[in-house]
Design a protein that fits this description.
alpha+beta; seven-stranded mixed β-sheet; 9 strands
């Protein structure tokens, strides 16, 4: 996993020009010596005051380094909060103390949001200096961060594959053969007990056949060798 920032120069004549790429998080130990070192935090059990009332997870990643124009190297870090988005807009407005007069600020935040295509929103919060690091902060409101979420994998699990159907068909075929054969033996030969089962004599011999086969395998493995299994007299 790699998180990067892209610096672009917006020019009316030439359009958007990429000036540089900032490595924020990833396994960069082969290049700039940084490690991803991901850390997960469950918000409900977090001791931080800002996490009270939140449902979801926080992911912290590092590994990137970037040299600013003044020559100072800043370690980079990415913090992504995956928040449950089941609450309605009205509930979020009441929880955060936002009234209708402040909805203009909400519209400004919406300009920094990206729809993830599944009803969730990825929001850019900040990219600034925190202590000795430069931190990219993102907020991802998604249904998959809810603790009672059910992914699409559950739907796929409801369909049986070819191998499952093959086993079921084989089982039903064997069961039908045994039932029909037992009925036939009962009506034609007045068989009782074990003799009702089709090919009962062969089935009774299976344990002995298997035992004899295992004895031969063990004898071969233990080194019958070139004598072909015969012992010297």
């Amino acid at each position: 996993m790699i998180v990067c920032g892209i610096e672009k120069l917006i020019s009316p004549d030439e359009g958007n020009i990429t000036e540089g790429v900032i490595p924020i998080a990833g396994e960069y130990y082969h290049t700039i010596g940084g490690s991803l070192d991901p850390k997960w935090t469950r918000l409900k059990t977090s001791s931080a005051p800002d996490d009270r009332g939140k449902e979801g997870l926080r992911l912290e990643m590092g590994g990137g380094k970037y040299t600013e124009d003044d020559g100072k190297v800043w370690p980079q870090k990415a913090v992504i909060e995956f928040l449950c988005n089941e609450a309605t807009e009205e509930k979020r407005r009441l929880a955060s103390g936002i009234d209708k007069e402040d909805e203009g600020d909400e519209r400004n935040k919406a300009a920094q949001e990206t729809d993830d295509g599944e009803g969730g929103k990825l929001r850019f919060l900040d990219y600034g200096y925190v202590g000795e690091n430069k931190v990219l902060s993102l907020e991802w409101q998604t249904k998959y961060a809810c603790e009672n979420a059910k992914g699409d994998g559950g739907k796929a699990g409801g369909h049986w594959g070819f191998f499952t159907w093959f086993i079921i068909i084989i089982f039903l075929a064997i069961a039908a053969y045994l039932v029909f054969g037992s009925w036939l033996n009962y009506n034609r030969y007045s068989a009782r007990g074990w003799d009702l089962v089709p090919h009962s004599e062969t089935l009774r011999d299976i344990p002995y056949i298997f035992k004899d086969w295992m004895r031969r395998v063990v004898s071969t493995v233990q080194g019958g060798g070139s004598r072909g299994g015969y012992s010297a007299v």
